[in-house]
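Why run this: before we spend reagent on co-expression, it is cheaper to look at a predicted model of the complex and decide which construct boundaries make sense. The entries below are exactly what would go into the expression plan.
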Amino acid sequence: MQKTKITNHQLLSLTANGSIGGSVIVISATVASIAKQDAWIAALLTPVFGMPVIWIYWFLGSQYPDKTFVGIIKEIFGKWIGFIAAASFVFLCLQIAYHIPWYIGNFITTQAMPETPIYAINLLFVTALVIAIIYGIETIARASELFIYFASIIFFLAMILVSPNAKIENLQPVFENGIMPILKSSVFFSCFLTLPLITLMMIYPIHLSNMQKAKKSLFKGYLWANLIIFITTFMSILVLGSIITAKAQYPTYLLATEINVGVVFTRLEFLIVAIWIVTQFMIGILFFYSGVTGLSELIGLKEHKKIVVPLGLIILVMSEIVFPDAIYQANWVNLVWPPYIITYGLILPVILLLTFCIKKWIFKRVN
Amino acid sequence: MKKLLVILLMISLISLPGCWSGFEIDTLAIIIAMGIDKSEGGYFLTLQILNPSAIAAKEPSTAAPVVLYSEEGKDLKEIMRKIHEKSGRRIYSAHLQLVVFSEEIVEEGINDALDFFARFNEFRTDFYFIVAKGTTARNVLSILTPLHQIPGIKLHESLKNSEQLWAPTKSVRIVELVNAIVAEGKEPVLTGVEVTEEVANVKLPTKSLESLQKSEIENTTKYFGLGVFKEDKLIGWLNEEESKGYNYVIGNVNNTVGYINYGDKVKITGEVTNAKSVMKASLEEGKPAIDVVINMTLNVGAVEGEFDVSKEENIDIFNELAEKKIKLMCEKTVDKAQNEFNADIFGFGEVIRRKYPKLWKEIEDDWDNEFPDLPVNITVKAKTNQLGQITKPFFIKEKE
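The model came back. Tokens follow.
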């Protein structure tokens, strides 16, 4: 069967979009509540921990260039343990796939259209998700290539426009509370920026046309996302101060309401929302696509497109009832999400890597 | 398949334009300004709402450009909803320009009110907070002014202009206000507004009926100076001179005008075109001290009397006198903040915290006692760049 292939630049944009999507509008609040005015240092530290993780993803993929992540797990762990591990990974993907429309619905109903039922908003979003996956990975990759230009340009425009309000005093004193809070918030950064990229593993080795350059594109995309998240955190603290940043529901959005240059450049906050929805859409696709293809591979379907619509319906229904309220969601994100994603984004790949190395070593000894 | 697509597209036409929570502009009551007064056991809220038919009409309209609605109650959000009983249109607050607190409210503290302004999603962050001095917030909002049709916008604009061109006011928005309240080493200020009697029209010749009607004494709103806060409570006022001094110290002067006297007969007006201040903390025998350096550039605005400003030594005299005057002005303000109010409105505590975080942790709790004794050294450096359109004054006798 002819496999659909994506280019390296498309992989780069998928990585960047996936990494930005989950974090651009909310992350600075969580981080500023821990590290105060030093949160931007944590953002700078994140790639230091993130790069090895991305390297593990790359390495695993490069060893099995014709397998998906589910296939890799099965190959390394064997049939039964592999099946259980892969199934729980697929469950994670499908679960997060219905968290993401919830964020969209919640944001739109709190900030813009309070009277609109969440389902009406989520319906549009989930429909787009389903259509995208029916069109297939090539279309998704091309869209993400466009989105990353759109998001980056608008983002830098917004940040330049808000910079006249920056106050350098908000950053000082540096290292007031020592290094510990910075490291702690760096963990949070990783949980939103780095580890969700595990879903890329369903796309990256199997659909990539040029394996030689894969490492470079993964790293480049990841670093680009890091730069953008660093700038949002940095600007939020510069303009709003760490206290307001920490207590805002959507700090980057609040940051954009501060744009006030001349008479023309005001009321631009929905620029930031556009970036967020677009990148959130990409991370939604990554999770949903991984869930759908993973599930179809697990149960041995030849064509994953057949289960997209039913799963889409489940996602639509679940997207409103997944969190009963915003308080529950905030607790979930702070308490459940980090250990959850660390299990699948960090521990699982590390165990896979170790098992892979041990197996290889044993085979060598035997031969 | 194509038919299905067409049907899908038609359905999305209904849902996509985002009409769900849409409100047509002719169903909205757009709030320009809010006034918050105290009433027995709660708030007395006044909304200044745009009257579109008076503004949009091509012919000058006789209707008032704004309408005031007031309601009493215990909770701000509740009162805003309650006003729907009167307004007949849906109240829309994303265009809010200004919030006026009455003195009674700010004396009791504004933290509770501020939470509402930060939480409600229709509010943006670009409106200013001011305090009505010696009058009610409703009274301030009720005064119509001739140059700007809408009083709320007039207050917003004149605050902005007087800050940029005259200097004793300060436009404070919610982000800055909240940050100043929560910061340990900084106290907020808000500009005060008062209602004054405008007497300029009285002397007009009474030739027509119309000017007769207009030559009555009219009221107008006028900014007064800065209100000094301790945390979120108003504790006193700085007058115009002291407010200017405050803005010099924190480096918030863009452009202003002042004069100095040289001898008995000479008066020189200087136009400050740029004034920047740098605050630095230092240690004197283990105790913190603050150095403020103000760099300003001047233009000569006017000369009265015999004083040749085109001579270099004379310009040096002028610079020196200007430095002295600004220094005195700033010192007076600092002295008042330290000894009369004991409120660190300049953020000196924050300056110390930034430079000496460990020392600040020790003195943080005792800052109220430390602040009045804090040594503050103010240095002013003036530089005159331009003389204006003429060099030597015309009416100076040339020595042959």
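Chain B has two domains: 27-238, 239-400. The longest strand of chain B covers residues 266-284. Bring this page to Monday's planning discussion.
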